[in-house]
Amino acid sequence: MKKAGILNRHLSGALAELGHGDGVLVCDAGMPIPDGPRVVDLAFRAGVPSFATVLDGLLAELVVEGATAAAEVKDANPGAAALLQGEFPQLELVSHERLKVLSAGARLVVRTGEARPYANVLLRCGVFF
Fold it and tell me: Active site residue: 20, 21, 36, 105, which one?
């Protein structure tokens, strides 16, 4: 049994299968999930687990070389916008509609219980060397 890090066996296993360039969509409870990517649904109740908590756990285990979010987050969810800008100074902002199109190419979708709008980010995996 693992004693640290991500304990959810489905999420831990999915992360271990990722490679350089793979996309991981971390999304709120309302984001439409495209057909195709593997989905690990962590949503339990509205707000649980939060987008910030899940993102923090993922960033502790993943090498991320880029991130894309919806430009609408800046006005609709300033808290999530600040979190994303703090984590990803080179954050790419696109329309929410474009983010939904891009997320269809993700290898993994991690759905949170976040109930605030536009708390979504598409991560691009890097390498540790």
Answer: 20
